[in-house]
Amino acid sequence: MPDHRRMLSAMVVLLLAAGVLACSIDLGTGEARKPIVEILSPPSGSQLELGEELEVQYRAVDEVAVVRVELEADGRIVAVERSYQSEGQPSMTGTLRWMPTTPGSHTLLVYAYNRDHVMSDAVGVSIIVAQLPPTFTVPPPPTETLAPPAPTETQVPPTAVSATPTHTSVPPTPAPPTPTRTPEPPTPVPATPTHTPMSCPAIKINVPSSAYPSRVFTLEWDANPHAVPSGWQWGIRFKGAEVGWTHLPVPLDSPPREEGGHWKADYLQGRGVEETLYWQVCLVNTSDPSRTFECCGPVPPWPIIHAR
């Protein structure tokens, strides 16, 4: 009997050790849990006609929180849907729309991102877009045109010859006096508005340091002072190895927002190739027709590595 107890105790100790070892191995991986996304419709191989809008229904779940879902068509982001809650939600279900512009086979991929900026594995479907058949318009039959009737000959009565009139002298008409031209006063030219330089706040960009070449990302920065001056709005510019800057149109597609004490601008994107771009945050005077950029910083510009 004591031998059985010792054997049972040894087995319990071994099981506990195995459990602890398994936990330590699982904890030692340190891999971030990925969100999971699935396409509910349409099924792969679906067909639609050119010019017809396609609705892609999805469902995404995550242990942390799903913050946005992206739809990619042939390697380019065409639709993005964000969580209505700023901190994300455990699951998201929605519809992403895409309008094809060329016929043929197209690959659609859906990605989900959680609050920790971890991206899910892609799920995809293949869609076939059919070319619309040409339409032919049948012209109406030609209308028979009747020839006009022959003109009727009309007898012209002889013209009576009148006597030669006697010439009567007419006195010359005096010429009217030439009007005197009064010079008009010159039209005043409005003064050209002058651009007033802005005293820039101190800018510090926080994230990101890397992004995919063809996917949108969110730029986060701090400003000191934090508030945007009255009559001004945020602008953004970037450049690569070239000297000149690319200024994004103002206002931005997604206006910058305040969240958690920081400024954030969504739906920014690189140029679709692997490269390092340098970014700066600027201020733009809304009353200035030329939309002159007062680029505040950071100095030097913030580098973002756009690569897969």
Tags for this model:
seven-stranded mixed beta sheet, mainly beta, flat, Immunoglobulin-like, 1 helix, 308 residues, 16 strands, five-stranded mixed beta sheet
Write the layout of secondary structure elements.
Layout (H helix, E strand, L loop, with lengths): L1 H28 L6 E6 L4 E4 L4 E20 L2 E7 L6 E10 L5 E11 L8 E8 L71 E6 L2 E2 L5 E8 L7 E8 L6 E2 L9 E3 L2 E7 L6 E11 L7 E14 L2
Parallel strand pairs: 2-7, 9-16
Antiparallel strand pairs: 1-3, 3-4, 3-5, 3-6, 6-7, 8-10, 10-14, 11-12, 11-15, 13-14, 15-16
Describe this structure in words.
- The protein is mostly beta strands and 308 residues long.
- Helices cover 9% and strands 41% of the residues.
- It is built from one helix and 16 strands.
- Strands 1, 2, 3, 4, 5, 6 and 7 form a seven-stranded mixed sheet that branches. A five-stranded mixed sheet has the order 9-16-15-11-12, with no helix packed on it.
- The two termini are 65 Å apart.
- 17% of the residues are buried.
